[in-house]
Design goal:
Blueprint lengths: L1 E2 L22 H8 L8 E6 L2 E7 L5 E4 L2 E2 L2 E6 L12 E4 L5 E2 L12 E3 L6 E2 L11 E3 L6 E2 L12 E3 L6 E2 L12 E2 L7 E2 L17 E4 L5 E2 L10 E4 L6 E4 L2 E4 L4 E4 L6 E4 L6 E2 L10 E5 L6 E2 L11 E4 L5 E2 L12 E4 L5 E2 L12 E4 L6 E4 L2 E4 L4 E4 L6 E4 L6 E2 L10 E6 L5 E2 L12 E4 L5 E2 L11 E4 L9 E2 L2 E5 L6 E3 L6 E3 L2 E7 L5 E7 L8 E7 L4 E6 L9 E5 L2
Amino acid sequence: MKRTKAVLGIIRISLGLAGRAPGSWILPLLLLALPGVAQAQFIYTAANGAITITAYTGSDSLVTIPGTIDGLPVIAIGDGAFRGSTILTSVIMSDGLASIGTDAFYECSSLTNATIPNSVTNIGDSAFSGCGLASVTIPNQVTRIPSSAFEECRGLRTVAIPDSVTVIGTNAFAWCNGLDSVTIPSSVTSIEDGAFFGSTQFGTLRNASITIPAGVTNIGTGAFAEYEGTLIVDPLNPFYSTMDGVLFNKSHTTLIQCPETEYGSYSVPSGVTAIGDGAFYFCIGLNSIAIPGSVTSIGNDAFSTCTLTNIGIPDSVTNLGGYTFQSCFDLTEVTIGKGVASIGERAFFDCPDLAAITVDAGNSFYSSADGVLFDKSRTTLIQYPEAKAGGYTVPNGVLNIGAFAFWSCAGLTGVTIPNSVTNIGDFAFSYCTNLTGIYFNGNAPSVGPSAFLGDNGATVYYLPGTLGWGPAFNGLTTAPWVLPRPLILLNGPGFGVQTNGFGFTVSWATNLSLVVEACADLAHPVWAPVQTNALINGSFYFSDPQWTKYPSRFYRLSMP
């Protein structure tokens, strides 16, 4: 590692001092005391006869990247070299520079001007992400605008993309929401995921248009999500087309992107078979979408952050993607047709007004009960609508409560979980802020590490005699569940026929004594005491070694 030296101004003095009065050489001495202009300081490495700048240690806000250091050409700005600088406002890069590394100027929020020479052929991922640039001219030797290169450059107004560029990378201009002008050159063949995501919320592009050239063969997911202008496809493009400003594939069988400028209601054209990932993302003006029977697939995030109030999924749809309705704050009801065979992860995530999910009874894969979504066999609870209020009892027979199933259900006050449940997924009950009690009928199930995250006011109640409980469960305080009467636990390893008899656990959160009575015929019952036991810590275990002497045997509990 080397560090360049700050060079002070040097003044040559050729005054003969002999015979002169002292005052005659005061001026040159004063000049010597004046500070010179300090050059910017860098840390750099030298390899193969060239310099790569790896860090900036100076304090100047205006920096020039020199063409040479120690007589060697500067060809690269290394990864993260200026990352996070808060003082840098302007950088001028000398001709000869070839590469700008990954994160080179990442989060240089005060950087408003960057002069990039035409000698640059490579710009790294996130090189200028989070900068304060107002405009940028990309060198005409760059062939790819890399991932997140200018992401969140919120002050960026204009972008000049040269004809050398063939790929606009993932999130390259995402959240550049002040853009006034973007022209995609005819050289571009691929516009990757999120390339212009959220980039036109506030700039004048919201009233303008973007033309997709004839040579574009790939448009990634959400490339123009939250775009408020008009999308136009060159009619010679063999892969894509537009209809009323909505982007489709060429054959109009897949709806790819609906711009935010659609308001009120929209009818997906008949013949469309797929609604793509993020197709209606953040269409905050749409409150109604009609889906024709030709549609068989709805992609991930398809209606995420829309203002839909209710929607019906037709019988023709077989696949419903993950996060499909994420953050649809106005959505109150969803009806799922009988054809849906797959529902992606968190399809109804963060929908605070959703009160009911209804599944067609003819569906072979999913079902609903009281507005709650289950698999067909009702062994997995998939989604509890966030807007349902009060207490809820999970139906007996449910084995699994899925991840995020009750996420952020602010109206949920209490939940009773049957002894059939053996697994609770991660974040299943997270941020149910009004949840005060979780009541378990059985042994402690396996549970995700954040299943009850944010439920700080809740207590876990368990039946004495059930297994796996301690003073805390998944970060929540536990307490015995006090029932109005004693209960025979119909689960656990001790229930049923054992080596020495027929046994079961009696649970009641007291230390009283109870009598176990038995009879052989419920039609003509004659109850006889079999055993009297004291409840210790709320439970006792009963075993009847005489049960084999009777054709049938029935038990009940009574007070002594």
